[in-house]
Each structure stands twice: as C-alpha cells, then as structure tokens.
Design a protein that fits this description.
Blueprint: E1 16-24, H1 29-41, E2 43-49, H2 60-65, E3 73-76, E4 79-81, H3 84-95, H4 106-136, H5 144-161, H6 174-189, H7 198-208, H8 211-230, E5 243-244, H9 245-250
Parallel strand pairs: 1-2
Antiparallel strand pairs: 1-3, 2-5, 3-4
Helix pairs in contact: 1-3, 1-6, 1-8, 4-5, 4-6, 5-7, 6-8
The chain binds glutathione.
Glutathione is lined by residues 28-30, 52, 57, 69-72, 83-85, 120, 124.
Length: 258
C-alpha cells in the first residue's frame, strides 16, 4: 500500500509538552504561524481543528473564549489568548528556552516585536482584503489596487532583508515565522516576482527548507491554494478529535482521514 504519510524523523526527547489547547484551522495563515512556531520551538500541546468554512469558529463556546470570532485561540488553564503573535511569544517565554527564536535582551526582543507588529498591522490586513472577497464573497480575482499595495509591501520586505539572511539579522526568529505564514499565503494570490523581489524570494526558499515549514505550513497552504483555485468550500473529513501537535508533526503536517 502506498504510504499515506510522509514520515518525519523526530527526536522525541527534545520535546516540551504543555497542557494548553489550540483551536486552529490549517487554511488560516495566523494559525499556521502558531503551528510553525510550536514546531520550531518543539512545543507540543493539544490541537483542535475548526472548519471556518462551516462557521465552526462562531460556535458559542468559541465566541465565549474569543468574542472577535477569529482563530487561533490558545487556552492555558483559565488563561486565554486570541492572537497568533501573542500566542507565539507567550509559548516561547513560558514553555521554551529559545533565545534565538525570541531573544530576551531588550533590543533583540524589540526587533522581533517590530516584525510581529509589521506582520499584524501591514501584511495581514493585505491578506484579508485580497483573500476574503474570494473566500467568502464569490469574487474570482484580486483588484489592481490591492496588487499594487501588496507589491509595495513586497518591496518593503525586499529592502528590509538587504544584506541579511533573516529579518531579525543573524538568526531566524518568530518574526520570520509570522511573516512567512502571511507572505507564503499572499504568494498564492499575488506571486512574488523573482525579477522584482529576488532577495525576498530566496528568503522564502530558505524558510521553506526548515522542517517546521513542512510540518506546520505546507498542508494548510495547499488546502488554501485549492480553496482559492476551485472556490470549493472545504468539507474536510478530518477527524475532529483533539490531537497532540506531536501527531501532526510526525506525519509531516498531515493527519489520517477517518
Ligand atoms: N491578528 C490575528 C488575526 C486572526 C484572524 O483574523 N484570523 C482569521 C483566520 S486567518 C479568522 O479567524 N477569520 C475569521 C473571520 O474573520 O470571520 C492573529 O494573528 O491571530
């Protein structure tokens, strides 16, 4: 029988388990930023899949946790967080000793914060205004003005990366991960042109070689692409039982259909 999963070799001894639950949807770039963050930090928690096409994120128990009705949502005991950037930095400072991904020195940390705010305040709204009309309003294309604005953002990113391997400088950080989740998704709608943005594209290529990209971003990005290309609402048969991040990670981001 052909293997359904791409097996990934994982060193379980380096894993950190935490008693948190994450509600997420793989098509969502914000949720994929958290999944990549978890996988980069080797942190394992309980994950619950939510189908936004079926408005499951508007279920009363989720609205009680997040009145904004967005994903991801993280619950740690009685503590609830509803923003991917805040979730990743919380997990890093609470459960992970990962100085490189989230420096503790004030300047290093401020640079990561700056990138997270850039993603949240500039890139993500572009994603929303380009993708939502296609996802939810039967539109079939991205408007010219939006293409120009996204290309302006690509130009800024290209300049920010000049002379450095990662957005934060010498090390890849949670800032790179947040930006990759959004830019890889925008790239589906408005491709990053290799002639105009060669530095940005080679950074994307470098990021795509990281193991956490395969386990945390690829499957959802493929689903998002299919959703954009076909317009079909996802009717995932995936098992809705809460599962460990370890299960997702060890199967290359894929989970068995049941
Ligand atoms: N800034 C938030 C954005 C969250 C967000 O808007 N998530 C989208 C999915 S990518 C969502 O849940 N949308 C549902 C809706 O707006 O109805 C974050 O980074 O978590």
């Amino acid at each position: 029988m052909a293997p359904y999963f791409r097996q990934i070799r994982i060193d379980v001894s380096s894993f950190k388990f935490c008693h948190c639950t994450l509600w997420k949807s793989d098509t969502s770039p914000a949720c994929r930023a958290v999944m990549m963050g978890l996988d980069a930090m080797n942190v394992t928690l309980t994950e619950v899949d939510v189908n936004m096409d079926k408005a499951e994120h508007q279920a009363p128990d989720l609205i009680a946790m997040n009145p904004r009705q967005t994903l991801p949502i993280l619950k740690d005991g009685e503590f609830i967080l509803c923003d991917s950037h805040a979730i990743n930095t919380y997990i890093a400072s609470r459960y992970c000793d990962c100085e490189k991904l989230l420096p503790t020195n004030p300047a290093g940390r401020a640079i990561v914060d700056q990138l997270l705010h850039y993603d949240s305040g500039i890139l993500y709204p572009h994603y929303r205004s380009c993708a939502y009309p296609i996802l939810y309003e039967n539109s079939r294309f991205v408007m010219h003005q939006q293409i120009k604005e996204v290309e302006n953002a690509y130009r800024e990113l290209e300049t920010m990366l000049k002379g450095r391997s990662w957005f934060s400088g010498a090390n890849m950080t949670l800032g790179d991960i947040a930006i990759m989740a959004t830019v890889s998704t925008l790239h589906v709608l408005i491709p990053v042109d290799k002639n105009k943005f060669p530095v940005l594209l080679s950074w994307m290529f470098r990021m795509s070689k990281e193991p956490f990209y395969t386990t945390g971003n690829l499957k959802g990005l493929n689903e998002f692409t299919k959703r954009i290309d076909t317009g079909n609402v996802l009717d995932s048969k995936e098992n809705k039982r809460p599962r460990s991040s370890l299960t997702r990670r060890s199967t290359g981001g894929k989970l068995a259909e049941t």
